[in-house]
Amino acid sequence: MQINKIKATNIELTEAIKAYVEEKFLSLAKLTVNYEPAATVDIEVGKESEHHQKGPFFKCEATMQIPGDVIRVDVADEDLYAAIDKAKDLLKDRLAEKKDVMVGRRHESSEESEVTEDTTASI
Q: Among 95, 89, 105, which Cα is nearest to 64's?
């Protein structure tokens, strides 16, 4: 998995924030092994706007491109690092769902081929 870009909106993108984002999202690489080398992710972190003083105004948006699909998550929280963590967890869940669907399709198609082979053998 490759991180294409990390963008900051209404905040300064410090090395600490960049390193934290890279650490969290690169931990998803093991879930994208089947999509390599095509799995890429774009991440945007920042504040919703300059005038908010309280509430969930930090955001983390991640868009992952995998062959045949785009997975997008958008999370807002009162803490930037919590928003990053939640976005990573949500993206992980969506990738796991996608993998389950893919495995289920393979399993269903293999069952169908076994049934076809069994019926043709008895004829």
A: 95
> Residue 114 corresponds to which tokens in the numbers above?
């076994």
Position 8 pLDDT exceeds 60: yes
Give the CATH number of domain 2-91. 3.30.160.100
Strands lying side by side in the sheet with 69-77: 2-9, 40-47, 58-66, 69-77
Distance CA 50, CA 47 (A): 7
Written as one letter, the residue type at 21 is V
Q: Mean pLDDT of all residues in the chain?
A: 83
- What sections of 1-123 are H helices per DSSP? 15-26, 80-121
**Tokens 């095509």 belong to residue:** 38
What residue segments make up the domains of the chain, in order of their start?
2-91
Would you give the end-to-end CA distance of the chain in angstroms? 49
